Request: fold
Amino acid sequence: MCGIVGYVGNKDINSVLMAGLWKLEYRGYDSSGVASIVNGDLEVRKVKGRLMNLQEILADKPLSGNLGIGHTRWATHGEPSEQNAHPQVDCKNEIAIVHNGIIENYYSLKEELIKKKHVFRSDTDTEVIAHLVEENYNGDLKESVLKTVSRLKGSFAIAVISVSEPDKIVAYRFGSPLIVGLGKDENLLASDISALMDHTRRVVIMSDGEMVVLKREEVKFYDKDGKNIEKEEKKIKWSPATIQKGKFPHYMLKEIHEQKDIIQKNVNLRIKGSEFDFGENFHFSPQELAHLSHIVIQACGTSWHAGYIGKYLFEDFARVRTEVDISSEFRYRNPVFDGEPLVMAISQSGETADTLAGIREAKAKFLKVLSLVNVRESTISRESDSTIYLNAGSEIGVASTKAYTSQIFQLYLFALYLSRLKWALGSSEIEEKIKEVKGIPEKIERILKEAVKIKKIAKKYKDGKDFMFIGRGINYPSALEGALKLKEISYIHATGYPAGEMKHGPIALISKDSPVVAIAPQSSVYEKMLNNIEELKSRGAKVIIIGSEGDKRIKEIGDDIIYIPLCEENLSPILVAIPLQLFAYYIAALNGRDVDRPRNLAKSVTVE
Ligand code: M6R
Reply:
């Protein structure tokens, strides 16, 4: 979603702002813009569409000056257009502002400002901030921003510049991420650490209710009342992952192919003999975990599907009752907590607004929170009591692939760990399962080698209009994930169902024109799955079956078969995910979709 960059220093403002925006591109956006101050005037360039359009405009009409702000916008209020792109400006074109988040009370503020003769030129909620800063300005930009944010409701990170004080950027964080980069003779700010790392490894992570005033040789932090505060500087030791597509036409395909190595890396990091090592950010003691009464998992999208698989794992291995909730429901449903629950948040980005709000809801009730997060130093990991990192590297494609399988992997090991603490599984059973886990990378590789076959099947079904994905038991969430993958990148309607539920309604949709993807590896519910597939076949459905190597029965009933290696039932969602991802990928690519940046979607969903 929206990305912010800011720079004050002596480098070329065009290249610094553009380089930062390119780094934020993966978050998803539909328009962009930059602004700087030159000789007492504000210069603004904005475009609809891809960043390349902004780059072209800047090549033609570069900004000058040594201070500027930039923005990628993902539309919430007002269509994607040049007018609605940020920076937004005040009436006199003297104040420019970029914003990530949503101003919930923008409508009443706008009415108030219109009465005071402010002239609005966009449909955005953001523009009210520019006019409020103008209205509140009394010779001190910092004071006027503080006064302004005290009137705003919602979530926001903002950066403001003004021709009256051309040596500084004033920024404020409340609910959306903002990181300051400290340099020599230059200082920066961005929504994401990756946008700073070409310039510096010294960062300060801002918290909600904090303001920063950035000058070329000085950075000062303030609390919401304007009181000077000291902030801890962090040295980023890790390097940004290489984010080139290499030989692959899309990041998504590259990321699908990285899964073997990522799981192998996690096997090496997490399994130490017969012990588990969940990393340096995991702080729960065995005693604490042994006493927990139940688990509540909350997450969004693909991460929620991984959480759903977690429910099966925790209940089966550790006999710990587990609830799974979509974060946007969890946060508003006033959940009941009794006993000593552990709240788990799962998120690739670590910035998803609803998941973060769910954590805050849990913390407000004094509950312990464990998060599974991919992006280091993200807000979700910082606000949780403990974090297990996914170690999946940067995921650029909007469709989550490698983060998902790593989430399942971490959940699997954590469930085994809990089962040991709770005396649910015996040591030999745990050892056996650890052995199975170690075999997963090689099995993923075998599936990836079959990518061409999956492409052929995708070609056959690429014109399908309605797909049904079915599964049972631990692969019911896999069916949900298969459907989500297909719809989000191909724009083809797809729905996921527990196979046993088909006859309670959805079977009415079945005809020869509605392909069904049935997930039926060897498992405790295998026979039931076959019965469900037969029921669909007898109503004319075309069925693609994902099943286990060597299974002859599925060959007789399926129209097309994708084989995966045999594995322990509870590990099968990892293997099943690979053909589901490839199937969705090829259908989307064959239909000419923008696979890595599907329409209307953002990689990091920082607004609710
Ligand atoms: O970063 P998160 O894992 O918290 O994101 C959650 C969802 O927005 C995300 O999984 C989304 O559903 C993906 N586009 C799925 O591929």
Summary: Residues 244-438 form a domain with the Rossmann fold fold (CATH 3.40.50.10490).
